[in-house]
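Follow-up to my post from last week.
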Amino acid sequence: KAGVTQTPRYLIKTRGQQVTLSCSPISGHRSVSWYQQTPGQGLQFLFEYFSETQRNKGNFPGRFSGRQFSNSRSEMNVSTLELGDSALYLCASKQRPPETQYFGPGTRLLVL
Amino acid sequence: AQTVTQSQPEMSVQEAETVTLSCTYDTSENNYYLFWYKQPPSRQMILVIRQEAYKQQNATENRFSVNFQKAAKSFSLKISDSQLGDTAMYFCAFMKPRMSSGDKLTFGTGTRLAVRP
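User reply:
Got it. Predicted complex:
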């Protein structure tokens, strides 16, 4: 099976803009989670979707949002970008069982 | 809330030697999952090994094995016969899957491992 794919891989935006990141899970996986990785805060959970429903959300402002489509592909959106949003955004998919999340290569976002 | 602690920010090991990375966690849950992930310079997060808390037997995957001490809430990773390709950041992670509130990995701060030739 193909692994988790994320697009785009790299992105440069300016403050105030918005951005949409995409994640395609492993075939058959219905759960998709998003994580933000920064040098200062480490790996932090953003949100998780299962069957098009958000089941859990991390402690991030409302500027961060997401959705999942019927084919399990997921998108996350960040509006009104801030310099601190510069990070590696990781997507992971999972099926039950086994209870294991498999990660995509990530999207590196740089906000100038 | 669960917390995961990795007390070794950096470690170094000679090629072909054995190294152990430490991880402790705090939870009031009884059934959960623990993971070690590896993140090489490419930044791709790769699963190394998984342990189910209800299983007493320690998980092993080729050169990688864990020492899972449930009562002590300790979950260390042993890498045998270290190879240059093992050079990476290693993250310990905890998950309690819940159908109602979803699945969330809680990560430690990571241990940067350098394998010396």
